[in-house]
Amino acid sequence: MKTRLFAMMFLEFFIWGAWLPLIFGYLPALKFSADQPPALIADLFQFPILRDLAHLFSEQALILNAFPIASIIGMFFSNQFADRNFSAERFLAFSHLVGGLSMVGLAFTTSFWPFFLLMAVHCLLYVPTISITNSIAFANMRDAQKEFGIVRLGGTIGWICAAWPFTFILVDWAKVKAANPVGFVSWLGTVLGSGLSGPELQSATRWTYVVAGVASLLLAAYSLTLPHTPPKAAAPGSGPETQAWRQALSLLKHPFVLVLWIVAFIDSFVHNCYFNWTGTFLTTPDVGIQGNWVMPVMSIGQIAEILTMLILGATLKALGWRTTMIVGVLGHAFRFAVYAYMPNQSLIILVQIVHGICYAFFFATVYIFVDEYFPKDVRTSAQGLFNVMILGLGALAANSLCPWLMQSVYTKDGVTDFRGLFLVPMAASIVAALALALLFHPPKKSAGASGPVVTGH
Predict the structure, then answer these.
(1) Are residues 291 and 429 in the same domain?
(2) Do 226 and 293 fall into the same domain?
(3) Rounded to whole angstroms, how far apart are CA atoms 227 and 230?
(4) CA distance 139 to 83
């Protein structure tokens, strides 16, 4: 059973890892605007009061924000509709069938509205499956505390593995043919060293959607072989979810919770700046990463995440909540400082390790903190409250601002000022770390206490 659930998680996150890293460079290749809304809604932004907000609703921003908007909707949909009305494995199969077809369609779509609608369909169906796969796993494990970590590791490995096929897909085959290598070893070396670049790389990025779509269709078929996981019965009484969410929101009256919630927004913004800009930055002449190696280089962060998670428990005991989170947040500042001031290929590759440290030491720590400090009856909703910032609003802010900052504010005459660009998330990370250091003071738990420290009443 663990092997079957591991395979489910592997495919679930393989899909996301296949298309996300390179989409930020692909949208400009399709001539989608970074500062102008699409034609059907552009007239709304002719009014003076809305004119300065046009870039927030640009073509690129709308496409990139399909996922965070779906994340916000999905947090309610998956908990209050999907898992109340459908067996989990059938919902998973349906979502990945339709979502997979949508993803394949994206590979052959170059017009804005069809591209946006296909992306919206995929995201709206994919996001709920993240929690649905968790539900299937928990329902079919004997000892969730011991087994879930191993099962969920399949997702991280799936994300990593999604990067590596592209070392053979995003290849300049004309260059390989011209080199005429003799023998397999020589041929392999030539292929791995002949990655696409520039417009050719951007055009070939459409194959990431084909790979993601095929993986989604495979998971749709595989879902029907998973154990039957029936719908959850609604809790007695009216509106239990609404009441839990009200209690979760009331936790923001505690200053340390509010500070952490705001810092989660900032850190999510910075985290998504990394995804928005890194793929393009790696292929610049200063760094010089071959196009077919961009995704494998970025996957180093996920490898580091696995290793960091192994020491997270010991780190929390040694440093405590606040210092661990500060280290995670400042990791972003360090990475962007290296990007800005030391764009050396070897250093840029090495600093990808920091991405995994940032994720584990902040985001994973936040989830553990919520589980430790918050009342059991609102714990799920409290996790959702932070997910609104981490997967929703922070990503919305980054995806709305990053294309405009990179392509309009920091690019002049076709030349991008990457140093100035990277100083934006670097400064934001430092502000977030200072906020944690000065304002985040959770109450200490008394010796032997096992219950929550704060309440929502």
Answers:
(1) yes
(2) no
(3) 10
(4) 12
